[in-house]
Design a protein that fits this description.
It is built from 8 helices and 12 strands. With 322 residues, it is α/β, with parallel strands linked by helices. An 8-stranded mixed sheet has the order 6-7-8-3-9-10-12-11, with helices on both faces. It has a 4-stranded antiparallel sheet with strand order 2-1-4-5, covered by helices on one side. The radius of gyration is 20 Å and the shape is globular. Bound molecules: adenosine-5'-triphosphate, iron/sulfur cluster and magnesium ion (MG). The site of adenosine-5'-triphosphate (ATP) has 17 residues, from strand 1, strand 2 and helix 1.
Amino acid sequence: MELLKINHLITYFNITAGTVRAVDDVSLTLDYGESLGLVGESGCGKTTTALSITQLLPTEGNIVSGEILLEGKNIVDLNDTEIKRVRWKEVSMIFQGAMNALNPVMKIGDQIAEAIILHDKLSYKDAIKRVEELFELVELEPKRIFNYPHEFSGGMKQRAMIAMALACNPKLVIGDEPTTALDVMVQAQILNLLDKLRKELNMGIILITHDLSILGETCDKIAIMYAGKIVETGYVEDIYNNNMHPYTYKLLSSFPNIHKERVMPDAIVGIPPDLINPPSGCRFHPRCPYAKDVCSTEEPKMVLANKDHYYACHFGGVFNEK
Ligand SMILES: Nc1ncnc2c1ncn2[C@@H]1O[C@H](COP(=O)(O)OP(=O)(O)OP(=O)(O)O)[C@@H](O)[C@H]1O
Ligand code: SF4
Ligand SMILES: [Mg+2]
């Protein structure tokens, strides 16, 4: 049984301007100890997918249909009390810019202990002992648990947030841009730390990012998202070297490659569509340099290219034709 299996998830936001089709038929699987990178431009539905899994959607957001099976149990059907038990203990999330969410007037160790006391019902003394273990795990000195947030650097604060996410031994951790606010060296250290923890604790990790170039070393699989849909998914090797979807190809070309000839990265022309009125057919067609008539009328189905490598395009690999 997989750790996580998402089947045909649809999550919409109902706002006065209309219905935002933020996640529109997304399916994913993740095994124990596996890491998946979820990548795509701003507004494509990455955070909404994560908030659907953790069921932390704002009131205007609703899971319309689909299943989210965590160890085989559909968590979409759980009531509030049941979902609170799942959050933290089975799945936890490190938010975009989370380190700024630390309470500036409370010692960091106490903030983590508070979560442990609430969810694991430990005494304060035992919770602090657990915080010390967690600090060791995320490579912070245990004696720093009684520091305040302003005494920590950005990287240290993010390590503390990871410790908090691990506080109740979750099986799945979702990092939503967990390194965006950090400089590249610290970014690499945090990604390596998450990778180490995943292997040591056999956790599943979903890493959300705009930046495809940082995933090669730390992820097993990648899912590329565009306008609320997964357009290509597969092992890192296939996504980097045998990609079939024009959007993946363009996304990869839009990052500079230090191993290749020095050329200007190739930007993707145009902007992602408005998800209240997404384009018909293939949602990428207004920006796709390879679009033909059928692309604006028929939605492409997922096609199997290789083991666990799927793409949704009527003309997969078209960019390789001379
Ligand atoms: N609370 C909300 N109300 C209405 N629309 C929303 C809400 N939150 C997100 N959306 C819309 O849903 C779509 C998906 O947004 P989401 O935040 O999931 O994208 P994202 O891929 O995480 O983007 P980013 O990379 O900028 O974080 C966007 O069109 C966004 O405007
Ligand atoms: S289906 Fe058509 S528009 Fe969509 S990515 Fe493929 S070629 Fe481009
Ligand atoms: Mg986001």
